[in-house]
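ERR on first pass: missing label on line 2. Operator R.T. fixed the label and resubmitted. Corrected input:
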Amino acid sequence: MSSTALIFHIQRFSIHDGPGIRTTVFFKGCSLSCFWCHNPEGRHAYSEIQFVASNCIGCGECVYVCEHHAHQLKDGERFYSRALCVNCGKCAQNCFSGTLELIGKRMTVKQVMDEILRDSAFYESSNGGITLSGGEPCLKSVFIRTLLEQCKQQNIHTALETCGNYKWDKLNSLLPFTDLVMMDIKLMNPDKHKQVTGDSNKRIITNARQLVLTDKPIIFRTPIVPTVNDTIEEFSEIVDFIEELIELRLKRGKASTNDANIQLELLPFHQLASDKYKHLGQDYKAAQLIPPASEKMHELAEIAKKHAIDVKVR
Amino acid sequence: MENNTYTYQQRIDALRATKLKHTQEKWDYIGVLDYDDYALILPPVEYREKKHLVSASGLEITDVLYTKFVPKTNHPGGGFFGARICGENFGKMLEIHPVYIDPFSSLAGSFMMILLSYRDPYWNPDFNFSHLENEHKKYKITLHGIGAAQHFCHDMTIGFELGWKGILDKIRHYRTLNTDEEATELYDGLEDIVSGFQNWIGRHAVAAREMAAAEKNRLLKQNLLEIAEINEKLVSEPPTTFREACQWMLWYQIAGKMYNAGGSLGRIDQFLLPFYERDITAGILTDEEAIFHIACHFIHDTSYIQLGGPDENGHDATNKLSYLVLEAAHRLKIPMNVGVCVGEKLDTQLLRRGVEILFEDKTGIPKFLGIDVTSKDFTKNGYPIELGRDRVYCGCNWHAIPGREYTMNDCVKLNLGVVFEVAFYDMMDDKNTHPSVAELWKRYEYHMSRAVDIIAQSMDFHLDHMFQVFPELHLDLLCHGPIERGRDASHGGVEFYNLGLDAAGLATVADSFAALEQRIEIEKRLTWQELTDYLKSDWAGTDGERARLMMKKAPKFGSGGSLADDYAIRVSRLFTNYVIEHPTPKGFKILPGIFSWALTVQLGKDVGATPNGRHAYASITHGPNPEPGFRKDSAPSALAVAVAKVQPGYGNTAPMQIELDPGLSRDEENIEKLMSLIKTHFELGGTQINMNILDKQKIVEAHEDPSRHPDLVVRVTGFSAYFASLSPELRQVVVDRIVTSE
Ligand code: SF4
Ligand code: SF4
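pass 2 clean. output:
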């Protein structure tokens, strides 16, 4: 059997995930659980039911097909119990109103490739390509290795968007087929990191240090999240670390050029994901956070610039 | 004497404010305008009167009559038919048309009336086509082409060379050579028009002098004197300076609108170029002035123009003037119809500038033309590539060879949704048939071919009689042949006849076929009879609604690799091949296109519920576009791939309509990405792109209350218009496109 992966979306004409016009493949499952996550569909490594109650037309089909009695219609009222649901997806297959949808589809490498190739003309004309994202794509390293390999055979530029939280070997095994790595650096304090993401940043920091020893172009990405890392102090720690990484790379001495090929991107936290949490029945702990103003973003970017870091606000 | 001076931008702003005021008056008086902003100005209050009519494009239009003008009739049932009386009436119209001069403009003239509106009935009942009407009704072919006016293109250089006296001399010369009745009548009509033109222009010269005498401001006074001088000359002489050429062009163009609502113009950056270069070399023109004169033209004329593109040898003909015209559009920010050519060998700077302006102005201007594809595809009809390159963009979705080709473009539409519906019930009502998608396809094929046949016969009928009904007197003047041969362009006057026929509702049909195959034949979720009952009841009840959503949710054309994607290609191929293989019975070539103009709402009213989950009488899909929301991400690249694949490919177009994320910021990276989206669509075979980058918030506000943003301009389709002037239904179509394309 060919290997498969759970994918929750393949976005064509993706223009915020790397250079040019890209197709971004979103994998399900992540090794962190950042409380502000913008892609809650990507957190769990299993398919799950998205439930948008307001779309329901009350046809009763879901009640009829669910063997686990997770759906009920009583006196015109609509009930769905996640506790009873085993995410088999049967109801979603019979619901056409957009109320029930199974998020996460098992796909083979070939299926994903077919979708990727539809836009190959655009990659070529725009110097774009594909980006693997999630969730955390590297958790499916065998699958994505094949995928990346096939993209390279087709001369498609490949980018990995990763949280960096896993053993170095995983990432290392993918690098021969990866043209660009986009790695999140969220916070330097390991305890707080654990508190807000569910895990310490130890492996991330090690992996980042390993990564700069290769010659891959890198974009480090920092989501700017109030209460997490938006103070000057916390952000400066990140900047110091990036600076250290740049020095590390330059010292390592591909030094005919001064260009470390390392960029920093700052992504403002936003509230666009709040409905997704609701529809997936996940607890949204960032509901009260106020997105950083663009002045704030630029103020932080200035700090990075002072350290001669190539920084961009997204 | 006042010494206030005004910058060119201040003068443009003043002209723009006046235009907005005129537009506001039109809204108040006429109401909805679901078509191009014609730049018409209302006649004086005491002489205006409303009239309702149906345009050549099939749209119901409220028009304004100038009550002082009463056309002569020459038919017992009323109306006026034939070259002689049309010429006489139009000449008369020009003679009594009120003078219009704005002291801020460098050019005189505007228009307040359209002869078309005075035609009642529009067709001479002596030429009876009741033998065609049964099938017109059956397939709801309202745009069959009989009586369709203009929609081809003149050659402006003829006018620039001859001037009005030269044109008159030419008519008089050929009158002595062609003496048959048809020619004589044509010449009579043409002569009347020319003297009408001369009178009209001459009266403006007189008025400009009078205004100059009364004008207090030194700069405006000087301007009015210049207008007077220029027009005194243009009454008979051809233009020699850039400004004169612009003035000549404006007279001719607005007269085209006045005669039969014509709006083709073509390669303005080519035919004005010699004037521009000469004046620049002579030191009597600056670029700022050139931009200003062009702007003064477009304030009063929304004709369709092409910028850039190849010369006949395929070399890039983009020039300085291409940029200046684009710049004029940018400064005006009013509805305009500017097409920028994109091609392998063409200057990409013009494309870049176009994209920048699209980002900055958010008016859907310019649009983009896949000129390599359209010119090369045209050769498939047996024409040399040089002719293909000469075939200029000059109408909503269309191209024509200036002065040499009669096209009927954008006038004849086949609603594929109706064909599908006829085929569907034909099958379901046949008790001897077991319904299946294959059987339905067979019947669809049959009915489509019948509908095309009947259209072809209608086109022949039109070409037989149009010259006796409402000949193309205005365009005849600047075509190669009509005067020389004594034949109207619609009746053998020009060299080439390639008649445009556009299919509409492609995705509605493709998605319907696919949904049937998916839900009935593959998944067996319902039977043919059940579906038919749902359609007939327009999906009544909860069961009906569930069935509708089920059909609607089947993968759509545009999603990529779906059944519907395959059907869309099949539907397009079937139509294209049949049209190409079947010229009219009299042997005229028909060129297939896919385009529904702004008629998606109206054409939808002819089609009951369809198996793609569409409600009865709701809009059909737009041109070759997938249905809005065709993919979860509505990816522009997915759209571009899909639309490129369904191109008919014989030189006529299937324009992609695309609405882009208004949040897209105008940075270098996004400009590059958009440029490559455009280029790639054309490389894949696309022919035209109508693109909006809109401020969603503003659109939603303006939809609720149009008066909040009276100057908001959107690209509705091939044409752009003030959003506030559209009907609520058409505004809704635009809003839906944007909201679902996030
Ligand atoms: S199947 Fe869907 S629309 Fe029908 S009752 Fe269930 S959730 Fe609602
Ligand atoms: S996914 Fe399966 S278990 Fe869950 S509600 Fe739907 S049918 Fe029941």
